[in-house]
Design a protein that fits this description.
615 residues, TIM Barrel, Alpha-Beta Plaits, 8-stranded mixed barrel, alpha/beta, 22 strands, 3 domains, Rossmann fold, disordered N terminus, single chain, 5-stranded parallel beta sheet
């Protein structure tokens, strides 16, 4: 990139037939960007004929040419321009239609400042990637323009997998390092070897081995981005080139993704074959200044991975290996923890905001590690998901929580209910419903007292199957809640088609509800629309009296958070119930319902027409 290009401010074209929206977006984005305005798609196309823009932000529904019709025209005129759509429609269908038309992102009204800045940042980063990719492709075309396409393919691509071969990979590696020298970015090289591949060839024949190699190539392609390179290096070995790496942790994440991609079996006729991989990782500039040194060091790391029995990854740098070993040690400890009952369940009260009554609790897992002490979920849940151990942990928490709730009911503490988090991986298990039925039967807990909490994304992975399973769960009498609502991809208008009972308001919105008009508007909209759909609303992360009173003002049904109690062991939770035999928090029960005037400033700001109107 030239010095002139690096100093040039990104150019953004804002298209909306509502002048107020245009001016608002220009005000939000003018710092650091050159913004141009157009009131229609026709005006925008005229501008695009004379000027170039990094980013186009367009409304969908306009008089004349619509935003959806505009997208292909923009991309045809300027392929490197990124298009982001805005609309007052809250359904996922509009977002899907925009993406199919070629849009990079989709923003819904009312417009949130943080949402806009985040979307614009992502879009401008994508624009830079497109420009870099185009420079790279142009440079490659200059190198090979004298050769025919057939000769080029035979010389630079593997005949079996159609991946770049070792020669082309080395060339791309050298070019990527040259670019990285100028941009100060890191570049990663991963060498991936199929463990015990020779046994497949010897046992099932070379045709079966070719099937495995072809499928392995496809799985590896799905683990990296379009700007990255996957090549067949030699025999059962593949090479991956990852550019624009900001930290070594990204390469570790890619390695985990590769390991996950190889967990499903390879289908060889009627025979299923499981294949694991060993991975060696080299990083520029930490492990060398040229591509041959990086490749040599990555090969040394791969050799070490194989010597350790395969099915693992190794960084060339010793300190990075220490992190990989730490993760392996934690995984080993976790398997032992399941066998030794080291996981324990904590309980956080769920409080009825109208009465102050403790109506139940949410079950939260903790790991009592024999060496590291009490570990919160953030320290191990991600690893449990990656390894599949989350299924056993989820079964344990559900069983323990249901049994404990039934015990409290038997001791006269009322008809408490229990909320249990269900991971996406646990939810996808074929026997999930059977396990729920079995646990309810073993613990003698009335199904109506159990609420299963799932995230939006876990349901949206396969909506049809999720609807069927959730319907069966509710037919049992159990309840279903959407956890962390507002952080996923769906909308309330879509959720009305799902068999759910409760929406849990994410703590990030609650935290700013009394100070940030955008968060206040979101909280108000979610609670109002959820109630209109017959859904209960629970607010998470309530930490101040002001937040609690604001939620009570909006008639939020229930809440949990440190204002009431942090998650505590079962005995501490029961002690609190004993001290308050009517299960009421006295300070809440005595507190009068707040007046609208107490929050008029936030409510008025949040209710401005420009934020609440939609098309």
């Amino acid at each position: 990139m030239s010095a002139e290009d690096s100093k040039k401010r990104p150019a953004i074209l804002i298209i909306d037939d509502d002048e107020q929206v245009r001016n608002l977006l220009r005000e939000i984005l003018s710092d650091g960007n050159d913004c141009a305005l157009a009131g229609s798609a026709e005006d925008a196309l005229a501008l695009l004929g004379t000027e170039s823009f990094n980013l186009v932000i367009s409304d969908i529904n306009m008089g004349g040419i619509s935003g959806l019709e505009l997208i292909p025209r923009v991309l045809e005129q300027t392929p490197d321009t990124v298009v982001v759509m805005i609309s007052g429609q809250q359904t996922i269908d509009y977002a899907i239609e925009s993406m199919r038309a070629g849009a990079f992102d989709y923003i819904t009204k009312p417009l949130g400042i943080r949402q806009i800045h985040a979307a614009v940042r992502r879009a401008l980063e994508h624009h830079e990637l497109l420009r870099e990719k185009r420079r790279y492709e142009n440079h490659l075309e200059d190198l090979v323009k004298e050769r025919t396409a057939e000769v080029e393919h035979l010389a630079y691509y593997d005949r079996l997998t159609d991946l770049p071969n070792r020669v082309l990979f080395a060339d791309r590696c050298a070019q990527a390092l040259a670019i990285a020298h100028g941009t100060q970015h890191q570049t990663g090289v991963l060498l991936v070897s199929l463990d015990r591949f020779k046994k497949i060839n010897d046992t099932l024949g070379h045709d079966a081995g070719d099937v495995v190699l072809t499928e392995a190539a496809a799985r590896l392609r799905n683990c990296v981005g379009e700007a990255d390179t996957v090549a067949r290096s030699d025999g059962d070995e593949f090479a991956l080139l990852l550019t624009q790496v900001s930290e070594a942790g990204e390469l570790a994440n890619v390695s985990l993704a590769i390991a996950d991609a190889f967990k499903p079996p390879f289908q060889l006729g009627r025979q299923e074959v499981y294949v694991t991989v060993s991975i060696g990782i080299g990083i520029f500039p930490l492990n060398g200044e040229d591509h041959s040194t990086i490749l040599r060091n990555a090969s040394a790391a791969l050799y070490r991975a194989k010597k350790q029995g395969g099915n693992n990854c190794q960084f060339y740098a010793a300190d990075m290996n220490a992190q990989a070993h730490k993760r392996l040690a934690l995984e080993t400890s976790m398997r032992r923890a399941i066998e030794n009952d080291e996981f324990i369940t904590y309980y956080q009260p769920l409080v009825n905001l109208a009465s102050g009554e403790v109506v139940g609790s949410e079950a939260l897992v903790r790991w009592l590690h024999p060496e590291l002490g009490l570990l919160p979920p953030a320290k191990f849940i991600g690893l449990a998901e990656d390894t599949g151990m989350i299924v056993d942990i989820g079964d344990f928490v559900m069983s323990t929580a249901c049994a404990q709730t039934r015990a409290w009911q038997d001791r006269g503490y009322g008809r408490l209910h229990i909320a249990v988090n269900v991971s996406a991986r646990h939810f996808r298990q074929p026997n999930f419903l059977d396990r729920v039925v079995q646990i309810l039967k073993e613990t003698r807990l009335d199904p109506v007292c159990l609420e299963l909490e799932l995230t939006e994304t876990s349901i949206m992975e396969n909506p049809e199957a999720a609807v069927e399973l959730l319907t069966e769960i509710r037919n049992l009498g159990a309840r279903v809640a959407i956890d962390d609502f507002g952080t996923g991809y769906s909308s309330l208008s879509y959720l009305k088609r799902l068999p759910i009972d409760t929406v849990k308001l994410d703590r990030s919105f609650v935290n700013g509800a009394t100070s940030d008009p955008d968060d206040a508007a979101l909280v108000m909209a979610i609670i109002t629309l959820a109630h209109n759909l017959g859904l209960k609303v629970i607010a998470e992360g309530v930490e101040t009296d002001e937040q609690m009173n604001f939620l009570r003002l909006l008639r939020c049904d229930e809440a949990q958070g440190y204002l009431f109690s942090k998650p505590v062991p079962a005995e501490d939770f029961e002690s609190a119930l004993t001290l308050a035999p009517q299960r009421k928090l006295s300070f809440l029960a005595r507190s009068p319902r707040p007046d609208l005037n107490d929050y008029s400033n936030v409510v008025n700001l949040a209710s401005k027409p420009i934020r609440s109107s939609g098309r």
